[in-house]
Every structure is written in C-alpha cells, then in structure tokens.
UniProtKB/TrEMBL annotation:
Its EC number is 1.7.99.1. The lineage of its organism: Bacteria, Pseudomonadati, Pseudomonadota, Betaproteobacteria, Burkholderiales. This is Hydroxylamine reductase. InterPro entries: Cyt_c-like_dom (IPR009056), Cyt_c-like_dom_sf (IPR036909), Cyt_cd1_C_sf (IPR003143), Haem_d1_sf (IPR011048), Host-pathogen_enzymatic-act (IPR051200). It comes from Alicycliphilus denitrificans (strain DSM 14773 / CIP 107495 / K601). Residues 29-107 form the Cytochrome c domain. PROSITE patterns: CYTC. The keyword Iron applies.
Length: 531
C-alpha cells in the first residue's frame, strides 16, 4: 500500500482493504471453474485435451470460424441430429459462459499428434469380395453433385440430371476445403476441420476408410493419378501424405530448412500436369512443390554454381520438398490453366504487412515474377480463368471490395474491375456458357444476390436474389446448362437455375448447403471451377 501522508486516509485505506479482501476471495470462490466443468460434462466426448473423440475438437484453431454466440447456443441448446445435448437445465448462465470462453483458449501444453497417433486412428471397411463392381443407383456417374450441408453436418449425393437426392449421410464435423475425387470419379475424399479424412465410395454409398491426419486441418488434395492423398494441417504444423487407402506414408514438418521456424499450412493443391502437390505456408515465406513423379529431378537446396555438374549434395526429387522463397507468405492460391504459375494472395498479418497483396510465382524458375494489381482482399482460391479477346484472363472475387478484378494472364495487368453490389467469396462459370456468376455474401446489404457477368463484354447483365437470405456458391452441371446455388441458411435450399435464362427450375430444401461439387467439372478441371 502506498505511504499516505494523512493518518485518516491511511486508516480508511486499511479498512477498505480489510473489507474488500474477503469479498474478493468470495467472488473468486463463486466464479465457475471452467476446466472442472469441462472434465465433468465434456471430456468424455471431446477428449481430455479438447482434441476430439466422438465429438469434434474444441480448440481455438477449430473454432476460429464459429461465432462466440453460436458456441454459447450449442452449449445451451445442443445440436440437432447429434449426441450433443443442451446444458441449459444443468448449468447456470455463468457456467455456460465460462465454458464457452474456455474452449476458445489454447490448450497448455499444446497437444501433439504424431505418426503413431495417425496410424492408430485409421479405420477401414474392406470391400465385399462378392459384390458387383457397379453403382447402386441409376444416374450419370459423371454428373453427380456432392453437396456439403454444414447446418447439420451431412452430405447429400445429387443426381445432376433429375435433380433428386440419391442418398444423404452424416459427415465429420465442419468439412473444410472442398471434397476431392479420384480420377475415375468413383471415390471422394472429405477433409474436416478437426483433422479427419473420410474416403467415401460413391458407387456403393459407403465410407470405406477414415484417418485423422491432424488436430486442425485446412484441406486435402488427391493426386492426378489417384495414388496419393495429402493433408495440410494448422495443428500440428505439418503435411501428411497417404496412399489411396489412407495408409500413412510419411509426414513433413512445415518448417524452414534450418528448422528454426515452423508454420501452419495454408493449403495444398494437386498440380496434375506437373505430377506434384503445391503447398502454401501461412507463416513462412516459402512455396513448396512435392513431386510424386519417380523421375523427378533431384533437389538442390541453397546456392549451386551449376546443378548439372553435381557440385552440391542433392536430395531425391521424388516426394521431396522443392522450396521457392517468397517475400510474403501465401494464404491461398490459384493455378493458371497450364499449371506453370501460382497466383497467390497474402492476408494482412499483425505487425507485418498492413494490407493484403497478391503475386505471381513461376514454378519452373521458382521465383515471383509479378505483383497482381488487385486491391482489397482477393479470394484467389475461388478465381476462374477464361478466354477473352485473344488472351486468357483471371477473374477473382474480392473479400474486401465491391468488384471482380479481371487480370490479363500474359501481362499480369488489370483489364477491368467489374462492379458488384458487395464483397464476394465465390465465383464460377463453365466453358459451355458465356456467363460467370459471383456472389456478394461478405456484404451485409447484398448477401442475398448473385451477379451474372457476360464473359464477352466483362459487364454485369443480370442478378438473381433471395431476399433476406445468404445466396452463394454456384456450381454448374456437367454440360453447363444449369447453375446450382446455395441458400446458406439452416432452413436453406439448393436452387437450380437455367444457365441461359437465369430462371429458377427447381428448389431442394437443405440444411445450410455450404458447397456443391460436380464430379465431371472437378476431375476434368473445368475452366470455370476451382481446382
């Protein structure tokens, strides 16, 4: 206590401390013990370290896209169609709030998930030897849609000709990054935010294998030959490589060459013409390429006078990491149609860059060759390319602006910024339609509309609306005749539009259908879809 000159003031201060001490102690005693509450009510389903068991992981990394109010609601009311019961009748409001706050704090010490954990997590269901190898349904296997319903964590398989649901099944919690198909279109791989990879047989309508690649995962990629699956993890800082049956082959620590710094992995995508996976790191300014070509050239890290003379010690190129140094890390990226260039965006980082930026990286010369003149916050992972007046252009929605930027992919210069009602997240087209569709779902006032752009004139020509709802994520049928959009609401729907007249054809009720993916468009890498 400070030395107070007045005896009366000093006496008053001593009395105040004496009175406040017991009250302060009592208040602390009455405060809910969140760790104890968690162990009593949550640990059996979500794990002692919150890494997930029967229920999903409850880590800050897993909950970063879940609003605090939603966490409170789920604890209080539970979640329909799951074993998550509501605790409003058992816990006080203060206890529920304490739990909601606590699951958003880091686990100390940080949980680990190594190769032994990955291998032990694998679950497989062998195929019956006597079952005919043919689909259990009558539909075009190349015109199926996999629809991820985030509202209640289910997946619907949709016939893209009749627009009827073939089956609907439960998924892991919070699928993320888009499903990936094998080259024959038979199998699809889902990646969940809490690290699970699920291999599903679209013909037999059955899960055939699952494995947990990490504790918090960004996305998965499937190799162009269908032999490999790679997972990008936020936690731990790693990549995990599997064979097509989800047996672990190896893990890669996402770290600098000297091992002094590690990183979350932003994304991994397959570059099929190059027989490689390309990887972006969120915290380290490097782009990685990992070749699955057994004839891949050796890798020389650092400076080499002449690699042809073998002056340095090389590492095998097959399944090895080929590093491209960058000035800024990439958060997401997009390939040109030839897969020679990566077009990547950098998000603002605390204490580093003040604004988002975008750059072009040449994978052959392994360096940045241009800055992309895109302001705001481009969402290049959902960009599209198409032919325009003798050149090829990239069109990208923008999370931080009200427009679609169109970039000439020869000069890397901005040709036009097409006005839209608000900031958008997804953009799609198809080679058989002259129109591209983009949403404004990041805008409070314009999230209920889709803008339709004429690719010939680079001008908006129409819009469709779903007043008061969030309308987003277009995907086309195999032939490009119909465009399917999502009403991103719990009582949402899949809306089928005629791609030429923009008129609604059919509506299927669904629980927040966050994304839909056409088998043919994905495996043929249609110019109007993300890769």
């Amino acid at each position: 206590m400070p030395d107070l000159p007045c005896p009366a003031l000093r006496a008053a201060a001593i009395l105040a401390l004496a009175l406040a001490g017991p009250l302060h102690t009592a208040a602390r005693a009455q405060a809910p013990d969140a760790p104890a509450l968690y162990q009593q009510h949550c640990a059996s389903c979500h794990g002692a370290q919150r890494t997930g068991l029967m229920g999903p992981a409850l880590l800050p990394e897993s909950l970063e896209r879940t609003r605090p109010a939603e966490v409170l609601r789920v604890i209080r009311e539970g979640r329909q169609a799951t074993q998550m019961a509501g605790y409003a009748g058992q816990l006080s409001g203060a206890e529920i709030q304490a739990l909601a706050d606590w699951v958003r704090t880091p686990v100390v010490p940080a949980p680990r998930w190594g190769e032994a954990d990955i291998r032990a997590s694998r679950i497989a269901t062998p195929l019956p030897a006597d079952e005919p190898v043919k689909p259990k349904w009558d539909a075009d296997p190349m015109n199926l849609f996999v629809v991820v319903e985030g509202g209640d964590h289910h997946v619907s398989l949709l016939d893209g000709d009749r627009f009827t649901v073939i089956t609907r099944f439960a998924s892991r919690y919070a699928l993320h990054g888009g499903p990936k198909f094998t080259p024959d279109g038979r199998y699809v791989f889902f990646g969940s935010r809490d690290g699970w990879i699920t291999k599903y047989d679209l013909w037999r309508l059955q899960v055939v294998a699952e494995v947990r690649a990490g504790l918090n995962m960004r996305n998965v990629a499937v190799s162009g030959d269908g032999r490999w699956v790679m997972a990008a993890n936020y936690l731990p800082h790693s990549l995990a490589l599997f064979d097509a049956d989800l047996n672990l082959v190896k893990t890669y620590e996402a770290a600098t060459l000297d091992g002094k710094a590690s990183s979350r992995v932003s994304a991994v995508y397959d570059a099929a013409p190059r027989n490689s996976f390309v990887v972006a790191l969120k915290d380290i300014p490097e782009l990685w390429e990992i070749s699955y070509d057994k004839q891949a050239a050796p890798i020389y890290d650092g400076l080499v006078h002449d690699y042809k003379m073998g002056e340095a010690i090389a590492k095998p190129g097959y399944l090895g990491v080929r590093r491209t140094p960058l000035s800024e890390p990439l958060d997401d990226f997009f390939f040109d149609q030839g897969y020679r260039h990566v077009l990547g965006a950098t998000r603002p980082q605390a204490g580093k860059s003040e604004a988002a930026s975008a750059q072009v990286v040449n994978l052959d010369v392994r360096r940045k060759i241009a800055d992309l003149p895109i302001a705001g916050m481009p969402h290049l992972g959902s960009g599209i390319t198409f032919a325009w007046r003798g050149t090829t252009v990239l069109a990208s929605p923008n999370l931080g602006g009200t427009g679609v930027d169109v970039i000439d992919m020869r000069s890397w210069k901005n040709l036009r910024t097409i006005p839209t009602p608000g900031a958008g997240f997804f953009m799609r087209s198809h080679e058989n339609t002259p129109y591209a569709w983009t949403d404004s779902m990041m805008s409070k006032d314009a999230k209920d509309r889709l803008t339709i752009i004429d690719k010939r004139t680079l001008e908006p020509v129409a819009e469709v609306r779903e007043p008061g709802k969030t309308l987003a994520h277009i995907e086309f049928t195999r032939d490009g005749r119909y465009a399917l959009a999502s009403v991103w609401e719990m009582d949402g729907a899949l809306i089928v539009y005629d791609a030429a007249t923009f008129r609604e054809v059919k509506r299927l009720p669904m629980a927040k259908p966050v994304g839909k993916y056409n088998v043919w468009n994905k495996i043929t890498r249609s110019e109007g879809t993300s890769h």
